[in-house]
Specification:
The protein is α/β, with parallel strands linked by helices. Helices cover 44% and strands 14% of the residues. It has 15 helices and 13 strands. The two termini are 16 Å apart.
Length: 409
């Protein structure tokens, strides 16, 4: 089988949820046959030529045919504001951002020369390119149900003009999903919940659940007890992504003070790129908070911590940070939103809490009863080994490709 992968980013380095999903699915796609990667260079991900070449080399190791193009919309100042204004012309931010004449030409050329059996379109914002190559069966991947995630963000906004922009973008994204999800032979979603959301939004879409996963060999378990710092917490996530930032704002403003009232020596380490994007205005003068920034390996930071916290208030899909935490055998306290798409049961694989007091109580209970935390960690590791290993997920992905190719007839 020959697979053409159309990507909105180059999935390297492996430092975020979507990057991890796309890289591992790309690697698993390679087990089905020959893969050609045609993707965009996002300036935030690869600001230098050296970082781009590193990414090209890494992707080339699993996909020998690689072509990377710039995003025209990212040229010049205030490009995000200009893209939002495209909504007045009926284009969602994602669609306007990823529009490129060069990509259009490259896609038509690649289909003519590579002759793929199926095209993997890695996000809804790229779906309009399918109009150029209607003869090739398409797989449309949904990292999240973008319209639903944008609508949830609108609901949480207290700023009226900003809320209006989010609501308008949600409508535009919903229209984009309704146009292109039925046109794809298969739609990939990360969870049964996202399947329900997509089916509720779109009539006629064929949906396969291909969940996010975790490299269980990379994240070995169990941890060494001797390195765990008592009453320490960790969170992993880039603060320039709004759901991560809002989670930490809420945690540091409302939850952390409650924990420190009971355990004055409690600490939290927030691991991830761009801490300045959300740190200064709400971290100033808060003792016990550490920002190491982006790190090459999160495992030492997680292994030294007593509890992993994930107080997500919004977002969508299945959070790879949760799967990574469970795989590393660390007790988890999270909101129910954070574990959407993961069958983690309260009191068995994790402690779940949705208000500040309950969240703080859950964390303190694990500080006070380490054996209870060990039981949670053991059950969490068993869950990801059984249901979320990338090798097993790759079987689902290849089955979706085969079904799309067979439907061509």
């Amino acid at each position: 089988m020959k697979i053409l992968w159309l990507g909105h980013f180059v999935p390297w380095p492996l430092r975020g949820g979507s990057l991890l999903r796309s890289y591992h699915l790309l690697a698993e796609a390679g087990r089905a046959g020959e893969v050609s990667f045609l993707g965009f260079r996002q300036s935030d991900l690869h600001p230098t030529q050296a970082s781009l070449e590193d990414a090209r080399t890494a992707i080339g190791a699993v996909c020998p045919r690689v072509r990377i193009l710039p995003i025209p919309a990212e040229r010049g100042p205030l490009f995000r504001q200009r893209l939002v204004l495209q909504g007045l012309r009926g284009k969602s931010y994602d669609e306007a951002w990823l529009s490129s004449d060069e990509m259009s030409r490259a896609l038509v050329d690649e289909v003519a020369t590579f002759r793929p059996d199926v095209i993997h379109v890695d996000t809804i914002g790229l779906a309009p390119y399918l109009s150029l190559v209607p003869q090739v069966p398409a797989i449309l991947n949904h990292h999240n149900i973008e319209s639903q995630m944008m609508a949830r963000r609108a609901e949480r906004s207290s700023n009226t003009p900003v809320r209006f922009v989010f609501q308008w973008q949600a409508r535009l994204l919903r229209a984009l999903e309704r146009r292109w999800a039925p046109a794809a032979r298969r739609n990939l979603v990360v969870s049964e919940l996202d399947e329900e959301r997509l089916v509720a939004t779109v009539n006629g879409a064929v949906v396969d659940v291909v969940p996010n996963g975790v490299d269980t060999d990379y994240f070995k378990s169990p941890r060494e007890r001797s390195v765990i710092r008592p009453r320490s917490m960790v969170f992993v996530g880039a603060l320039n992504w709004y759901p991560n930032r809002s989670a930490m704002q809420w945690f540091l403003a409302e939850i952390f003070p409650l924990i420190r009232d009971r355990h004055p020596d409690a600490t939290i380490t927030i691991v991830g790129s761009n801490p300045s994007a959300g740190s200064d205005e709400f971290v100033e003068n808060i003792s016990g908070v550490t920002f190491p920034g982006e790190v090459p390996d999160i495992r030492p930071f997680v292994s030294r911590s007593a509890v992993y916290v994930c107080p997500m208030l919004e977002g969508g899909g299945t959070r790879l940070k949760i799967l990574d935490a469970l795989a590393q055998g660390i007790p988890l306290v999270a909101t129910r939103v954070a574990v959407e798409g993961i069958p983690a049961q309260n009191g068995h694989e994790a402690l779940l809490a949705d208000d500040a007091r309950s969240f703080a109580d859950a964390v303190c209970s694990l500080f006070d009863d380490p054996p209870a935390g060990e039981r949670l960690a053991y059950a969490g590791r068993a869950l990801v080994e059984t249901a979320f290993d990338w090798k097993a997920i790759g079987i689902r992905l290849r089955a979706a490709y085969e079904a799309a190719v067979l439907s061509r007839g």
